[in-house]
């Protein structure tokens, strides 16, 4: 399985508009963060998680030409607003793209993009997609996708487990029943917004506690704010835990 980080930033992105902090003025490309998304290639199946506002740039910069499915974590703008850019992939593949999410998310996709699902005129390109509500394991070709219910503040949203990878963005709390679904993973990608606490995201300390509890051999933090300067924070983290960065590619055995 090959995982490409397309974006690792929090909802504002990094640099933040108008900010002159050390991270935002840094010339290190690892301090430049699009909104969060990953692209997973496994057994001839290509999976995109979320469609952030910079999706077109993320697809171009990572030379992505194939998406067999989209997994949505939740419908906040920073995870959804690149949805229209799936048209570029439709044009290459000439078929609809199946999109999966929990009930709230699929209802929000239909509401926000009502012009796609309830066309008011003929003409004008819209993404060709098929929406599926999921609340339990499902198959994508030969791969089992396991939705992981997590809390994002008061919202019930989804992380996903695929083989030995778990991707838990926008996570403030993991119920015990979901820890059971994560048993045996090797690579954890989890929300770690900043050092200070936040009502809807884990901070570094809380994310490290999850890493310890799961006993994973490797973890990457994502959905990072400008409070986290890449090299400084990485030097403070344990060896098996690192900040992800845009363009990072990680390969693991399924
Ligand atoms: Zn977010
Ligand atoms: Zn800043
Ligand atoms: Zn969110």
UniProtKB/TrEMBL annotation:
SUPFAM superfamilies: Metallo-hydrolase/oxidoreductase (SSF56281). Gene3D superfamilies: Ribonuclease Z/Hydroxyacylglutathione hydrolase-like. SMART domains: Lactamase_B. CDD domains: metallo-hydrolase-like_MBL-fold. InterPro entries: Metallo-B-lactamas, RibonucZ/Hydroxyglut_hydro. It holds the Pfam family Lactamase_B_2. Residues 34-223 form the Metallo-beta-lactamase domain. This is Phosphoribosyl 1,2-cyclic phosphate phosphodiesterase. It comes from Orenia metallireducens.
């Amino acid at each position: 399985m090959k995982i490409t980080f397309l974006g690792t930033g929090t909802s504002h992105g990094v640099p933040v508009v108008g900010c002159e902090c050390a991270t935002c003025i840094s010339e290190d490309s690892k301090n430049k963060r699009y909104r969060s998304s990953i692209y997973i290639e496994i057994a001839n199946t290509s999976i995109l998680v979320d469609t952030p506002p910079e999706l077109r740039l993320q697809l171009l910069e990572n030379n992505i030409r194939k998406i067999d499915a989209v997994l949505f974590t939740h419908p906040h703008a920073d995870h959804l607003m690149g949805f229209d850019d799936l048209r570029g992939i439709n044009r290459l593949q000439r078929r609809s793209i199946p999109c999966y999410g929990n009930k709230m998310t699929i209802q929000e996709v239909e509401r926000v993009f009502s012009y796609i699902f309830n066309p008011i005129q003929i003409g004008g390109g819209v993404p060709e997609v098929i929406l599926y509500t999921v609340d339990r394991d499902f198959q994508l070709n030969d791969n089992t996708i396991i939705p992981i219910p997590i809390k994002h503040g008061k919202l019930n949203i989804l992380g996903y487990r695929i083989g030995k990878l778990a991707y838990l963005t926008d996570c403030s709390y993991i119920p015990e029943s979901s820890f059971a679904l994560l048993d045996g993973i090797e690579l954890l990608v989890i929300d770690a917004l900043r050092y200070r606490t936040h009502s809807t995201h884990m901070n570094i300390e809380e994310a490290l506690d999850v890493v310890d509890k799961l006993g994973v051999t490797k973890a990457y933090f994502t959905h990072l704010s400008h409070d986290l300067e890449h090299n400084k924070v990485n030097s403070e983290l344990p060896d098996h835990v690192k900040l992800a960065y845009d363009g990072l590619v990680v390969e693991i055995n399924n």
